Amino acid sequence: MDAKTFEQGFATPAFHTGPAVAEGSRESPLFTIGDLAREFGITLRALRFYEDKGLLSPRRDGMTRLYSEADRRRLTVILKGKHLGFTLAEIRALVAAHDGEEASLSLTRDRCLTQLAQLERQRTEIDAAIAELKTMATSLAA
Fold first, then answer.
1. What's the pLDDT tens digit per position in 102-137?
2. 95, 50 in Cβ contact below 8 A?
């Protein structure tokens, strides 16, 4: 089965808080680490972690990290993959399939079904743990 792009949900805002680009300039906007952290509601540490793991590669201007629009789109995909329960290694592989193209998760129907089954198993385990803890709490309250 052909890989299908999975981009539903998790839309990014249509604006950016990064530095303005000079009018008439052909340069893409650049974003600081703080700009992206605020926009996506994540920590600076998370962005540095994704960089350390090779998922993002901002440009440097001295000590300042400058993220491109492509980095911003890639971050959207990373966070969507995380939201869907994929590991960073899986996200890296899913994103790498589209390097140089529009950032997206490259998912097949089979991969979606596999991830869905994994999340349902985890939910079953969590529900069982919650039930057990409720029983223990009730017995300890008596």
1. 556 678 888 899 999 999 999 999 999 999 999 999
2. no
Name the nearest CA neighbour of 78 among 93, 66, 95.
95
Q: Both tokens of residue 25? A: 């300039």
Rounded-to-integer distance, Cα 14 and Cα 46, Å: 22
- Find, among 73, 71, 56, the residue nearest to 11 by Cα: 73
The structure's pTM equals 0.68
Task: Evaluate whether 10 touches 76 at the Cβ level (below 8 Å).
Answer: yes
According to DSSP, the residues that pair with 85 across neighbouring strands are none
Please report which helix (H) or strand (E) contains residue 4, including its range. strand 4-6
Indicate the residue type of 132: E
